[in-house]
C-alpha cells in the first residue's frame, strides 16, 4: 500500500482483501526485478522501542506472499531491553501472540554493502489485518496525516554519527588516530570512506556531506531531507550500510550514545522544516520568509515553540537510554538546556537559516539532544505531534540564546527562563508519562510500553558505573 492509498486524515487503515491482492501483485513484480539484479533474500526490518533494528528475512521468491499475508513475529520484541531480556506488559510481553510483518514494497532497497540482500522496512499488522498499535511506522504515518489535514507537511533528515573500532572483544580501539575534524582521519581510512560513499550512492542515499567528528574514531554523515517516514527509513538504511561496510573492512561500528564514559558520544540530531503548498508559489518553507524571529513565519515559530516546550518529555523517545544522559551534558554540543538560538550548537533547538540566497530552501530546526539509540519513527512522530500542537495553540518562542547557556549563572538562566533538560532517563520518562499531547498522539499502548522498557533499563543498570553503562550499551546500537 503506498502513501497515496492511505486515508489523508487517519493514517494507515486495516488491510482489505483488495489491498492484499494489490500488494502481492506489486511484490511479484518487484521480486522479479530484484532477482534479476542478483538479490536472493529480503530482510524485513523494524525498529523496536529500545531503538534496535530487528528483522526476519525471506527468499526473494517468497516476497509476494510476505507482502500480501505478512511474516509472523512475536510482539514481545517491543519489550526487549538492550541485553535482550524483556519486560512483560499489558499490551505486549510473553510467549503468546503474533503479528505480521509486511514489507513496504515501494521502499525495498538492494543493499550494495551486502550483495545478494535487500532491505525492506516492514509495516506491522495483526493477523486480522488491523494495524498493530505498536507499529512505529504507522504511528508516524498517522502524525504525518494529521499535519496534512491542517495543510502542512514536514521535511526531515537525521545526522548519523558513529565510531569505528579496530579490535576484537568488548573494548573500543579507535580505528584512526588523527585530530578531531582533521584531514588525517580521511587519509587514514580513505578506502573505507570511499566504499561507504559508493554503497550509499548505489542504495539511493543522497549524501550531502561526510566528515570526521570530534571523538576518537568518530565520523558523521548528513543526508538530504525527505518526508518523515522516508527520513526514518533512510537512517536505518544508512546505519546498516555503515555496519556492513565496516565489517567488510575488519572494523566494528558503534552508534551508541556513549561509547566511552570519558569521551563525547554519538548524536542523532534531527533536522526538520515545516512546509505548505501555495497555489501560486508551490512549496513554501514556513521556517523562512516570514516576520517572525530570523525570518520564521508565524506557523514556523509556533511549530518550533511547540517542540521546545515539550523537549523534556520528548527525550524519553529521542534520548532513550541510560547512556544517553552520560552524553547529554553541558558544553559538549549536545544541547543540555531547553532553549533555542540562531546557529547555537549548545542550545537544544538550533535554528539554521542556511546561506544567504538559499534560505527559502534550507532554513530548518536542528534538535540537538537526540541520539542514535532512538527509534527514528517514534522520535519523529512525537516531534511532529509537539509541533502540530504548537501551531494549533499559536505558541511563541522565548528570546533566543546567543551564548553557551552553561556560561550563564544559575540566576541569569532563571531570569531568562532557561531550564536544564532532564539529567537522567528517569526524569525524562516522568515528563513523558505525564504529557497529554504525546499520550494522545502516540497512543496508550506505545506510551505504556515506552515507559516500561525505559524503567526496565533503569533497573538493569541501577548500580552500574558510567564505565559499565558505556560497556553495556557500546555494541547494541
From TrEMBL:
Taxonomic superkingdom: Bacteria
Keyword check for Cell wall biogenesis/degradation: no
Pfam families: Gln-synt_C
Classification via SMART domains: Gln-synt_C
Keywords: Ligase
SUPFAM superfamilies per the UniProt record, alphabetical: Glutamine synthetase, N-terminal domain, Glutamine synthetase/guanido kinase
Keyword Kinase (UniProt): no
Occurrences of domain GS catalytic (ranges): 136-477
InterPro entries documented for this protein: Gln_synt_N_sf, Gln_synth/guanido_kin_cat_dom, Gln_synth_cat_dom
Protein family per UniProt: Belongs to the glutamine synthetase family.
Protein's recorded name: Glutamine synthetase
